[in-house]
Amino acid sequence: xxxxxxxxxxxxxQEGDNxxxxxxxxxxxxxxxxxxxxxxxxxxxxxxxxxxxxxxxxGQRVTVLLxxxxxxxxxxxxxxxxxxxxxxxCAENGVRGGSEKLVFGKGTKLTVNP
Amino acid sequence: ETGVTQSPTHLIKTRxxxxxxxxxxxxxxxxxxxxxxxxxxxxxxxFQYYREEENGRGNFPPRFSGLQFPNYSSELxxxxxxxxxxxxxxxxxxxxxxxxxxxxQYFGPGTRLTVL
Lengths: 114, 116
Known about the structure:
The complex is a heterodimer.
Chain A: E1 4-5, E2 10-14, E3 19-25, E4 32-38, E5 45-51, E6 56-58, E7 62-67, E8 72-77, E9 86-96, E10 99-104, E11 108-113
Parallel strand pairs in A: 2-11
Antiparallel strand pairs in A: 1-3, 3-8, 4-5, 4-9, 6-7, 7-8, 9-10, 9-11
Chain B: E1 5-7, E2 10-13, E3 19-24, E4 31-37, E5 44-50, E6 53-57, E7 64-68, E8 73-78, E9 87-94, E10 106-107, E11 111-115
Parallel strand pairs in B: 2-11
Antiparallel strand pairs in B: 1-3, 3-8, 4-5, 4-9, 5-6, 7-8, 9-10, 9-11
């Protein structure tokens, strides 16, 4: 099966709270990770990425943390808004057919309650 | 909006038929990747094209094939459809060199294929 997985399939938070979405990966050779957001009826949208030589990277209201020791990735969303409701996928670089390609996890559905 | 479009939006086929899905990449994007996303799952890589040639393939049988054209459009063809082929098919274009994993991929909205 795929090497990237999620700890929780669903997450429900109140508007204004911080959200944390987790991801475990099993391929210790992976050195590049991306978080995508997929809203209903749309394709995945790039949120933020991180390379394995970093353990933290911040964007606008989002932070990605990488713990290579336990092969764990997390996405933190500050002051979660209703527009953040979506399915969130982590992805890693994996080798498919001899070429380096993205391997996606199953996703976590985030619901933001007003 | 990513500037990547796909057609049709929805499609219903019967087992054994053939289907062609289309994607229009952003102008200037030489790389296009196709993914299959089953319900409740993450996208699975099918294959990638760079400048009209296949550049890497995932674990999909040969009845999944593709074409990329000089005008930044591409096709995914699936022969001998099976029930398990029912899924959302996504294309994603990226501007840089083929296989550059760190190149941001811009996804289209997908085509929902139902095989009966």
